[in-house]
Protein: Glucose-6-phosphate 1-dehydrogenase
Organism: Massilia yuzhufengensis
Amino acid sequence: MTPSTDTDIGLPLDMIIFGGVGDLAMRKLLPALYMAYLHGNLPAQTRIISTGRQEFDREAYLAHVEAHSRSFIASENFNDKTWDGYLQLLDYVRLDVQQAPDFGALARATHPGGQRVFYLSTAPALFTTICDKLADAGLVDAQARVVLEKPLGNDLGSAIEINEAVGKHFAESQIYRIDHYLGKETVQNLMVLRFGNSILEPLWRAPNISSVQITVAEEVGVGSRAGFYDSTGAMRDMVQNHLLQLLCIVAMEPPTSLSPDAVRDEKLKVLRSLRRFGLADIARDTVRGQYTHGVSGNQEVNGYLEEKNVPEGSKTESFVAVRAHVDTWRWSKVPFYLRTGKRMQRRSSKIVVEFANPPFPLFPGAPGGVANRLVIELQPEEAIKLQIMAKEPGSGMQMQQVALNLDLQSAFQQRRAEAYERLLIDVVRGRLTHFMRRDELEAAWSWADPIIEGWSTLGEKPHPYPAGSWGPAESFALLARDGFAWVE
Ligand code: NAP
């Protein structure tokens, strides 16, 4: 699709970023807004107002952005003149979210009567106080929008508390719970592939599909985020949100329309159909891991327990694999294998849909292999491939696997926006379809919480795996038991 340039939202836009000096703002949000500006996707009267406790005047903040954010814009997209124009949109307001008077300064920096978008890129523990104080300062009106970063809460109880607190001031239609995986072109494409074609739908079910794998593997370790990560772990940080959202897109029934509620109703049904885990299921169908010293990208790297700010003897998991089930007619007995980890062999996120093999092996070749797979690659590159069997040229009827490659890059000449850019434009235009609704988020926590509690009851240490590997051996055994193997 050509990027739309319907930038006129009828009002001046104030994009207010809480945590505007933080890691996410520097690496993702400000570069994404630059790209939106470069492509004419921000309204003419836009202000981007960053907030934080650090003492910056506007010039010092712009210098900080120059030093810490500019390098995250690909050189082919960088243009001095556009960058200078973009910097004109930026402002900084020093603000401690605990201090009500600081919100007066923020109010003075906004366009009166403008479209306000509050992007809460801080720890979720601050969301309640930010929303209360915004409301007290008279900054929340009927058209204001709030974007909430993940993970939203630490468990179901805290998620409910945050949702209640935000909901006191913002209607559900004003709340954008972001999961950047839903902004990826390929994930949105999976919906088109499934519901814009009729050939896949009759096959998209048990027993034609024998298993689904969803992997989100990171090459990086915990880095400087141990303070946050050690009290979170891979289940809360990745599975409860990103992996379950991807599972929803694979497993959902066709929605009745593309309206936000029609799509989110179907995702909610999937989340509510996820089989709950008892202690025996947790012991059998989940694997927790923690990386140890190893080699990553040709460099020796620390194990999790040696990382800065990780408490001695921490049992936090940096890896999770789960064998999940969606208890519906469509997915009866189809295992959904979910896997995520830090310090894995390489950065790779993909969904693999494995189809049942032909019931009778007629042709020689590829013995024991899986005949057909739909592979949706999300990272590092986005691609969709259908693996099928074909005849090897020459005499005889030897068959071999080949991939029908849906080469989106050459089929469409248009640029593909990054997930954050696309989602930020959705927020500005008021499009909620690719954001999570409250009940979805709470259903996801209802599934994840008993697993996390069960791990704590069982008291087992996570299985060690060397940095630079694909995780603990137990994760391979989880699939081997059912006759499957992870597709790397
Ligand atoms: P971060 O680097 O720690 O930034 C958070 C910011 O919050 C800090 O810059 C800090 O600015 C500000 N802050 C803290 N206390 C404050 C207070 N009392 N008043 C005003 N500002 C305050 O965190 P981050 O990595 O950017 O993450 C932000 C959010 O995004 C988190 O919820 C995280 O889970 C989520 N997230 C992050 C990533 C990522 O890649 N970083 C990815 C997905 C989701 P001052 O010190 O200037 O006050």
